[in-house]
Amino acid sequence: MDGxxxxxxWNLVFMxxxxxxxxxxxxxxxxxxxxxRNIDTGLGLDRLAAILQDVDTVCETDxxxxxxxxxxxxxxxxxxxxxxSDDSTSFRVVTEHSRSIAFLxxxxxxxxxxxxxxxxxxxxxxxxxxxxxxxxxxxxxDLTSSVVGNYQELAPQSDLIRQVVTSEEEAFDxxxxxxxxxxxxxxxxxxxTISGRTAFELHDTYGFPIDLTIDAxxxxxxxxxxxxxAELLDRQRRQAHQAGRDRKGDAVARQDLYRRxxxxxxxxxxxxxxxxxxETRIATLLGPTGELPxxxxxxxxxxxxxxxPFYAESGGQVGDTGTIRTPDATLHVLDTRLGLDGLHVHxxxxxxxxLRPGDEAEASIDGDRRxxxxxxxxxxxxLHAMLxxxxxxxxxxxxxxxxxGRLRFDxxxxxxxxxxxxxxxxxxxxxxxxxxxxxxxxxxxxEKAGALAMFGEKYNDDVRVVDIGDASRELCGGTHVGHGxxxxxxxxxxxxxxxTGLRRIEALxxxxxxxxxxxxxxxxxxxxxxxxxxxxxxxxxxxQRLETLAETQRELETLHTTNLRNQAQRxxxxxxxxxxxxxxxxxxxxLTPTDLRTIATDVLTPRGIVILGTATGGKAALVAAVGxxxxxTARDLLTRAAQRLGGGAGGKGRIANAGGRNPENLPxxxxxxxxxxxALLG
Length: 682
Fold this sequence. Notes:
This protein is of the alpha+beta class. It has 18 helices and 26 strands.
C-alpha cells in the first residue's frame, strides 16, 4: 500500500473539549473538557474496502459495484468517474441511496411524514430524482433488488423491500405528474421568470421539489425567483415556529403549575392495577387559571388526588371514569390524563355539594367500563402479534386507541389486508385461553427477553411487561384481562389505508362484538323474510333480484328513449320556416330538463332553432338548441324568457337552459323566447 493510500485510512479527530454554539465553524466557545478524551479514527468498512480495492469511491467497491453497473445499464450511460460532474454525482447518489433504502426498510422503517420514516422518504425521493436525471424511470425496485442480491442478510425482507419502494416510487411519480402539469402551465405563462410564489405553491401544496422546478425552468430558458421562494419558505417556518411557541407557552405554564403541585404533594400513588377503589385525599383543585380554594355544585375542574385507582390515558388506552365522594360532595370523574409523568389529573363535574383541597375522599372507578377497556387492550396485543405472524415483522404498531368494547390499531403495511384470516387467527388464539402474565423488570432485561417496545413511546428504566401466552410480549402500563378468553370475541369492522405504508384495523370486543353479531343476524333475517327465503339463500336471491331489476331498468330506459324519439318525430312537422332558418317552439308537459335536451338535439338540424319548455313539481324549465350554421348564442334566446319564470339562463354555445319557480308563466316565457328567435332569423 503506497503512502498516499495509507494516509487515507485515517481521518483523526481528537475529541477533548465540550463546546457551545457559535456563529461559524471556528467560533464555538469551549465550555469545558469532556469527561473522557477519545480519538475518532473515521475509518469504517466502506472506506477500508475502497482503499484496499484501490478505487475512488465506495460505489466502486465489490459491495456496491453490481448496483453501479445496473445503474449504467438502465441509464444507457457510462459512469464518468469522480470528475465532479452532475452525472457523476447522480450515479453515486442512486447507487448508495439504494443500499441505504434497502437496509432501512429491512430494519422496519417505512416511509412517513415525520421521524425516521421521513428520513427514508427523503432518501427515496432524492434517489428517484437523480435516477430521472440519468433517464431512468421506476428505478428503485430493480436497484434495491440488486442490493439484496449482494447482502444476503436482506434476503428474508426482499419482498417487503420491493413492495415498499414500488409503492413509494409510484406515489412520487403521481406527485411529479400533477406538479408537472402545473409547472408546464406556469412555464407557458412566464416571459422570463417563474415567480417564487408559484414555485412555493408547487413545493408546499403538491410536494414538487424546488430543484426540479429550477431544472424545468432552465430547460425552457427561464429562471425561478429563488429569493422569493426562500423568503416564503422561511416565513412559513417562522409562522409554524411561532404557533408552536404559543402552544408551547400555554403548555409550559400548565406544566409549571403541575410541578408546583408535585413539589408540595408528590406524584400520584396509582393503585389501579390492583384495586378499583381507594381511600384518598383531595390534594388540590385546578381551574383554567390556576389553583382554586373551593368549588361548588355544577362546576367542572381538574382535581389532583394523593392516591388514585383511575388509570390516566396513555399508551393508546383511554382514561378511567367513575366517582369521587367526600363528606360534603359527590364528583363525577369525566376523564383521567397525565399532567406529568406519574401525576394523574382527574377532570370532574361536581354533582352536589362543595369541594375543598384537603378533603378526605373515596375514589371508585367505573368497573364495567374498565373491564371492557381491559378486554380491548388485551385483544390489541394479540391482534398485533397475529398481524406480525401473518404479514411479517414489519407489521409493527404505529398507533392505537383502546376504548371500552372497541379498538383501533394502526400498523405498517403497504397493501390491503383481508380481515377474515386476521380475525380467525386472533379468535382462535384467544379461545385457547392463554394466560396473561404481568411482570416488572428493568428496561434492558425486558428487551433482552424479547419484549416489544413501541417506537415513539417513552419508558422508564423500570418497566412493566405483559405476556399473553407465548405469542405476545410487550412493554405496557395499561390494564388487561387475566386470561385470553376474557378478551374475546373480536370482530373486525373495518380495514383501511390511512397513508402511504400505513393501515388501520377497527374492531369490537367482548359483548360489543356479540351485540354487533346479533344486529347483523337480525338484519340478515329481516332481509330473508322480505325475500321469502332461508337466511342462507338471501345473498343469492338478492343478487338475482338486483340483476332482474337492472335488466328491467335498462328496458325502461330503452322504452323511454324510444318514446322521446317518437315525440321528436311528431314535433318536426311543426317547424316555422324563416328566411335564415327554421324555428320550433313548443311546451311538452311532465318531462325533465334532460328529456327536453334529448328531444331538442334529436330534432335539430344545422339551420334550425329548437325551444322547448316543461312544467313539473312546481317548477318550469326551458331548453334552447341552435344549429351549427347559425351565428346565434343559445343563452341569448332564453335571457328574457327566464325572467318571466322568476329565474335565470345558463349554458354556453349552442345549447342553453333556464328555469324558475313560476310555472304558470311558462306559455308567456315560450312566446318571449320564440319572438326573440324569430327576430334573429329575420
